[in-house]
Amino acid sequence: MALTSLLRHERRALAMKLVDRELRTSPVHALTGLPEPEIRSLYKMKHDRSPPSGPMPSSSSFFTSRRNQAEVTLFGALYRHLGGQKIHRHLSADILMKAHDLYRDIYPEAGSRKGLNFTDAWVIARDLKSGATRFVPCRQCGLDYLIADEADIPPNCPFCFFRRLRKQKVGRTSDRALSA
Ligand SMILES: [Zn+2]
Q1: Gap from CA of 163 to ligand 1 centroid (Å)
Q2: Which chain residues have CB less than 5 Å from ligand 1, an ion?
Q3: N or C: which end of the chain has fewer CB within 10 A?
Q4: Domain residue spans in the chain?
């Protein structure tokens, strides 16, 4: 549905849902068309503090390690599973919420392990739409994984990385067993 055809109360209801998830102001504005001052006051009402400000991150900031890349890939795979090829043309708030809920079920926040918050999820969805983040099929294991422009790590498969790591670990363990 085009933003212009959203009724005002529908926009506000959607903005409330997004603000509940602590989505930052500019993406809420992009998804609902509601004026930013109104979104900021909704946020303050809900969370008793102002929404965070400053520039939005890009997906490349999540690609700092193979583990983080695997996590972004997990979210991206869920989002693509629910949204299909449409995700490359359109960012649907509904699909985004469903994908992030599913991601949270699989990967709950625990202690210092925070995972991707809803704003992070929006950033990934935005960059999947623009192409700044892309799925690449791994020629070795056959799984699709995500890469991003200007990421810190080389654009290789995170799953093959962990598989190699495991092999090395197992190798070291059996070496020790042999020399014991
Ligand atoms: Zn692979």
Answers
A1: 9
A2: 138, 140-141, 157, 159-160
A3: C
A4: 3-47, 59-172
**Paired strand residues for 148:** 133
Q: How far is the CA of 78 from the centre of ligand 1 (A)?
A: 18
- Categorize the per-residue pLDDT at 127 as very low, low, confident or very high, splitting at 50, 70 and 90: very high
Backbone angles phi and psi of 113, in degrees to 5: -80, 105
pLDDT digits (tens, 9 = 90+) for 50-78: 999 889 999 999 999 999 999 999 999 99
In this structure, what token pair is assigned to residue 102? Answer: 């599913």
On whether the CB atoms of residues 129 and 88 are closer than 8 A, the answer is yes
CA dihedral over 33, 34, 35, 36, signed as positive or negative: negative
Q: Residue 119: which of 34, 56, 36 has the closest Cα?
A: 56
Query: Is residue 101 very low, low, confident or very high in pLDDT (cuts 50, 70, 90)?
Result: very high
* Distance from the alpha carbon of residue 165 to the mean position of ligand 1, in angstroms: 13
